[in-house]
Automatic annotation (TrEMBL):
Keywords: Membrane, Transmembrane, Transmembrane helix
One Pfam family this sequence matches: PepSY_TM
Transmembrane spans: 12-35, 134-157, 184-204, 332-352, 372-389, 395-418
Coiled-coil regions, chain positions: none
Name of the protein described by the UniProt record: Putative iron-regulated membrane protein
């Protein structure tokens, strides 16, 4: 097959049209996930914390937690890097999961929620709520599609580097959208490469290609116990968290302890992760495992000593979501994420209009059978999403109504722009 500009153009257009609905959902959900913590801060006042010099005792927070939830267990104690957010404690009670917000500076328990905005958009972008790893691989598939779309665009755009500042106006809507599509695409090249390459790495990790998944995700150690190994033990209130954190920070010089993985059954260890002097890696790059009964350090992993594969793996998440540099980099990632999402929308409009004009007389559907594939997966997404909201998160009816309203707005805008408005534009030409 001869590689021509027309071939590259057709591949680029095929990706943009045939996979348009899912492509946009994956890209835009990831964009929103970038600032999802900030959206939680904006819409949920109980998650807000006023930064202070001193942190409250971890034991005080647990004591306040126990007073409110004497029969509950802590599954994960999350301390977000954003200093203006409360700690998020994953509470398990009566086999139900919920999120408790503890002020890291005062120790006060400020609220509880069945679901957070951050968790919703992370789940949506991570696996589209579709279980059995099907959703994971559907999302990761678009990492390949994004880089193919970028490469083919650069192959058929003649001397694209000369058009970094070119925006054509006054020549009609189609010419304007084409020019804007090209301009935004050119300025988004570094981020398109970043998002696609990190997405491909996620695929390699998830598929465990060459054993990478097992290598970069070592299992925590287990403690030999005289108790029944599977007997559930509520160790939540038996641990001296202040002492454990102090030991972890002494074990890894420069460590600022963050998230805590609390033991759920006998034999489990207390896992402490956090940031150190090593830049550009997530908290999990530093790990300290402590025996919850003896308070002895069992093992530790230092970010400064991990393998290259593990360093790459622990750098991918901060790079993909842009939180490595705080709020500034997250805002930059959000802006360019919106830009890439707009490329999908403008590309759909350009290609739809061009093909609609060609098929104006035949009245044939542009997407063909692919529209059914897109809508079928979209339908699965919504179905499994509602199952998760009701059975896993037990969210209130009001939350379901708000989420449903958001999806209805998305569906209406899709119909209005790409069906109603596009038809009228084609009929005028």
């Amino acid at each position: 097959m001869k590689l021509t500009k027309k071939l590259f153009f057709n591949i680029h257009s095929w990706i943009g049209i045939r996979l348009s609905i899912l492509f946009f959902i994956v890209c835009f959900s990831g964009t929103l996930a970038t600032l999802s913590h900030e959206m939680d801060w904006l819409f949920n006042p109980t998650m807000r914390a006023t930064p202070q010099k001193e942190l409250a005792s971890r034991n005080l927070i647990v004591s306040n937690f126990r007073e409110l939830y004497p029969d509950a267990k802590i599954q994960l104690w999350m301390r977000p890097p954003e200093r203006y957010l409360c700690d998020i404690i994953y509470k398990i009670e009566d086999d139900n999961l919920s999120y408790v917000f503890a002020n890291r500076y005062t120790g006060e328990i400020q609220g509880e929620s069945a679901l957070t905005i951050q968790r919703f958009f992370r789940d949506l972008h991570y696996y589209l709520f579709i279980p059995f790893q099907i959703g994971n691989f559907v999302v990761l598939f678009f990492g390949f599609m994004l880089i193919i779309s970028l490469i083919t665009a650069l192959c058929f755009y003649k001397k694209w580097w000369h058009k970094l500042f070119e925006l054509q106006t006054g020549k009609g809507a189609l010419v304007f959208f084409r020019s804007m599509h090209r301009l935004v695409g050119l300025w988004s090249i570094p981020f398109s490469l970043l998002f696609s390459i990190t997405g491909i790495w996620y695929f390699i990790e998830r598929a465990n290609i060459a054993g990478i998944g097992e290598q970069v995700n070592p299992k925590p150690p287990q403690i030999t116990s005289t108790d029944e190994p599977e007997a559930p033990v509520n160790l939540t209130y038996a641990i001296d968290y202040d002492n454990a954190v102090a030991m972890a920070e002494e074990t890894i010089p420069g460590l600022v302890a963050g998230n805590l993985y609390v033991p759920q059954k006998s034999g489990d260890v207390l896992g402490i992760v956090g940031n150190s002097t090593v830049p550009l890696v997530r908290q999990r790059a530093n790990r300290v495992y402590i025996d919850p009964q003896t308070q002895a350090v069992i093992s530790a992993q230092k970010a400064s000593e991990i393998s290259t594969a593990m360093w790459i793996n622990d750098s991918v998440d901060p790079l993909h979501f842009g939180y490595w540099g705080g709020l500034l980099t997250k805002c930059i990632w959000f802006i360019f994420g919106c830009g890439i999402s707009s490329l999908i929308l403008s590309g759909i409009w350009i290609t739809y209009k061009r093909k609609s004009l060609k098929k104006k007389k035949s009245n044939q559907p542009i997407m063909g059978t692919w529209r059914f594939i897109n809508w079928a997966i979209y339908g699965m997404l919504l179905g499994y999403m509602y199952v998760a909201l009701i059975e896993k998160y037990h969210v209130a009816l009001s939350a379901i109504i708000y989420i449903t309203l958001g999806w209805l707005i998305f569906i209406f805008l899709s119909w209005y722009i790409f069906q109603y408005r596009l038809k009228r534009a084609v009929q005028k030409d």
